Amino acid sequence: MAGLSLAPAAWAQEYKPDFNCSADHTKDSIATMLCENSEAAKHELMFDQAYYALRQIVGKDGWKTLKQEIIADDAAFSECLDPSSLVGPQNIPQADPTCYITHMDTLTDKYKARLSGAPLQEADRPIDQHIALQQDLINLGFLKSSSRADGVYGEGTRAAIMQWQKSHEDMVADGFLSDSDAIRLDSETKNLPVSKAVMDRNSPDASILPEKPDQTPDIHSYNHQSGSNVPYYFMIFSAIVIALYATAKTLQTKAYQATWDAVSKEISFQKLNLQIARTQKLTKDQYGTLQTAAWAREISYFMETRIDNIIDSGTTNKNLRQKLRANAINMIADLAAHPLPVNAGTTAYISDPTVFDTRMDPFDYEQHCALILRNAGWDAHATKKSGDQGADVIARKGNVRIVVQCKLYSGTVGNDAVQQAFAAQNFQGASGAIVATNSTFSQSARQVAATTGVILVHHTQLPTAAEEIYTRVNDLPRYS
To answer: Name one GO molecular function term (predicted).
Structure first.
């Protein structure tokens, strides 16, 4: 993780599983193997990072369902038992560490695919860094000094993380350590005075630390010796600067908190819609690979239409805006990942031809383009359902007839659309052709357009493009 260089805990080279190896596991091949094989135990801890992140996301209401899911997934580990090789006093099948690690890594990837934002950053973090960050929480006093940093973020560690986050007014107390949070936590521990770090650990050596000498200068003595008031005025000036800085910082903090309250309120209000959208947008391809691009676009759309205005009107500080946006995206991802209520509907968005939206139905987008032209004085209608040889919209005004190809895209529009528009123009005997999109055009599309005379525009520019054709056909003067 960039910017974070954590020293591993003293026991980081010898990993133990997340259960007590002192208990009797002689009847459990997997447990016995994990207690004896450090590398296998390490991969179990790596899985724990993803599992406990999901556990924090679903909350107590979802723990039972999540537990049932992992119990079902555990069945795959039966393949790692060799019944022909019996070990121990109970003659149990020997467990193969390599097989276990392979299955555990697959399971880890499966659970991590359901994470995003801060939870995913946390789950991607090396286990040694998890251990070191837990030790930081111990050193700062947020976890009990008797706690053992083992890399597993259970309820105690989550509570400690939230307590640490709440101690900073500019942080969101969600219980997750994002990359930026981890860097900040580690930095705070490094900057911790030695005496405080030792006292927080209840060290018996704390009492023998030497007292820090009083280094406060005697102003009156200094002035008497130097015969100058410069140091005195300098200290007054410094005090004023510090006071102004503290005031500005306080105002910034208040602005941040007020803005974040408004942002989090809007996200929470839209929680159900976001949950539904996530279930609709996260799909798997024919190979079983999770496709996240559509969900990422949905988050961007939600940020642009519902959140960015709140942030921009709340603060002008660039750094605070960036932090607010990052925290908003994390909160959106976290809330949307919560299980849907049983009675939740299946549709969060209804397409409307009168209102442009990147999620709208393609035919509604064609109707939207026709509506734009009608509002500009053209007799325009969408033709997709009647099938007019590639023309999505046909528009007339006086003696001029134009055809329009409407492309609702998330990517770049290629030259196929230009060729379709040109073919439709010839078929309809139209005066001109336009390709309208909400997106952008490829270089090859622009080259074909230059050759064929097809006009390429954003859909909001349709009236201007149509008027350009009308002016050309009627040989009217053009005005800039």
So the answer is: endonuclease activity
